[in-house]
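Hi P.,

Sorry for the delay on this. The queue was packed all week, but I finally got your sequence through. Input first:
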Amino acid sequence: LPVEDIDAGLAELLNFAEGHRGFRAQAGLWFNPPVQVAYQPGGVVLTGVNERIVEVPFVFRALAGLPAGARILDVGSAESTLALSLASLGYRVTALDLREYPLRHRDIEVVAAPLEEWDGAPEEGFDAIVCLSTIEHLGLGAYGEHAGDDRADLAGMRRLRAMAAPGGRLVLTAPYATSAGREEGQRVYDRPGVDELLEGWDVREVVVAHPASPVEWTVLGPGEEPPEGRTAVVMAVASAPGR
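Then the structure:
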């Protein structure tokens, strides 16, 4: 079927099928894409670029230098190809999520469990922990889990610190704005909120990126804040203190 022959009905079906509630998502095979497109009668158009365009490269940069075979915990892994990429690079990855990770690799251990209930971390701790756009959802019932713990995010951060090896790296990303608040199913952090999340960790780097336009993300300079009312993303690298 030539692209110019897409009609309104087919466009509607394709947009649903590829969305986060569509057929792929219902089958557990939707992986949040950084570049978003939409079908319309007669064509396909670019509609936006989301925070994954900066988050995923940030994770790889932050993990640079870890030796092959390092143990990495990927928290909130289900809608991401990150765990598979890290395993393909030679790391031993634990993919932890409420939902079972759908991708397989000899170096991926799949764990479908709440963070607060899972106690399967290696005795020596993880060499790195990645928490990509996950901590903001804890305790809010966004993915069918029990809701009601307003500060499950802080409890989650303490639990992650206990799972890290001495000096183990943390790579954290989360929604950010000049004023803290709530959006559907997630928290949005301001600078004091980020400091609260990272309490007890040795912070190495904190940067903020924001959408300068629907298709362009840029990293803000030191001390800069995103425009009022616009949600950005904060990205941090820290390490667990020695025990």
